Description:
Structural class of chain B: alpha/beta
Structural class of chain A: alpha+beta
CATH superfamily of the largest domain in chain B: Type I PLP-dependent aspartate aminotransferase-like (Major domain)
Shape of chain B: globular
Number of strands of chain A: 3
Helix content of chain A: 25-40%
Helix content of chain B: 25-40%
Oligomer: heterodimer
Amino acid sequence: MYPKIIKEHFADPKNVGKIKNPTNIGSFTTPTGAKAIFYFLIENNVVKDIKYQIAGCPFAIAVCSILSEYAKGKSIDGLKKITMSSLEQFFKIPQEKEDCINMSLNAFLNGLEMTK
Amino acid sequence: MGKIIYLEHAATTPVDERVVRKMEPYFTELFANPATKWTSSISKKVNEAIEEARKNVASLINASPEEIIFTSGGTESDNTALKGIAFANKDKGNEIITTPIEHNAVLKSAERLHELGFVVKYASVDSKGFVDPDEIRKLITEKTLLVSVMHANNEIGTIEPIEEIGKICKEKGVYFHTDTVQTAAHIPINVEKMNIDLLSISSHKFYGPKGVGALYVRNGTKIIPYMDGGGHESGFRSGTLNTTGIIGLGEASRIGKEEQGKRESYIKELRDTLIQKVMEEIPAVYLNGPGDNKRLPGNVSLIIQGIINEPLLVALNERGIIAGGGSACSAGKKKPSHVLTSIGVAAGDLSSVIRMTLGKDNKKEDIDFIVESIKEITKGLRNLSPFWEEK
């Protein structure tokens, strides 16, 4: 039922927690009470460190973990272009889980846009 | 598949092997339609088995066999009770009284009646889910046709004071319906003592097959059929009888009546141990519904603060533990549970509810593994959660 990559990241999510002095923070809350917060340390337009907190379904948790691994060391200009369909390179998005995945992606993108 | 610890008995139960064995011949050699009992000897045999099932269902609730109508399950029974009474008695009044924590089969039937011009009044429930019989008394007017209050709630396990409500309905001369889908064969039911006029039963909640149930209709009740057709079930519920299902329901009722007391005390003990251990081992856990004898024997409904239930349920499932959520969706568009909102669960806790409903085949020795699993998974999810840190 769950794609392998989602299972793996759900079982062992990477980069969990907060950054002491983040340069950027982004969050997203759903009407049903799920929430994701991303913390970034960005230097010279490059993501030096990234962590997150999440209360959401296994897809939402795994997407935070996948995004955090993907973003490290990358330029924020490229990361800002990530969309739902770019996530399809990692796994097929089930329609009924779009809202959950969207929550994690929006928190991530909000963080890139919003400096602390 | 590895070992499964099934904790969703309020959703459905496995069919008891004795029930399966009782049903088996009626799929093959005894396949006949019981309606032709006067001309066919196999039909007569099938018909006898149907009538035996009717006696067993009647006996489970202290009714007479002719007061039992076989249906497709709890939903059909609830629909028939509400709409059948409303339509048959509309010359006498137009009011129905129910509660906000009923199963959707009752709530949606009531909403449909409202669309058709009936007035639906809702008695409130307190923070444990109890209906106050005095409020029911006050809501009844000369226009009231029916009061429908469930025997016990499927989500939070509250057992309602239906005997008192039945007494009030009798005094006031209004029909009383109760949905006993969660209680039949689990706790004692007596339609005479409880003054019940109509009662819904679903077979698959007590180790019978799915797709079959019954509606008890007290003799002399003015009600119209929900299913018109060939006049089966004394003209009350047309459609060729689900013979195997009905025979299964009858056997599950017979066994249920015989074993009810033993099952109830065993399951209650498991329930209380599970609740006590989870609450001792994990901080910030709260019980929904009452904590005493007014709770369904197998129901455990807990708020685990700081987490969302869905990843907990998925991770428990990976360990072979099948549990449920009070409100299934975390980020999606699903509405939160009407039961949890009615008892005043805080908005932030609505997605943190886990429901475990125990059954006769659960084992004492599995309780520690269940508690340990919930504890470990909760710890991991709280470590991830922005809500837990905010506390």
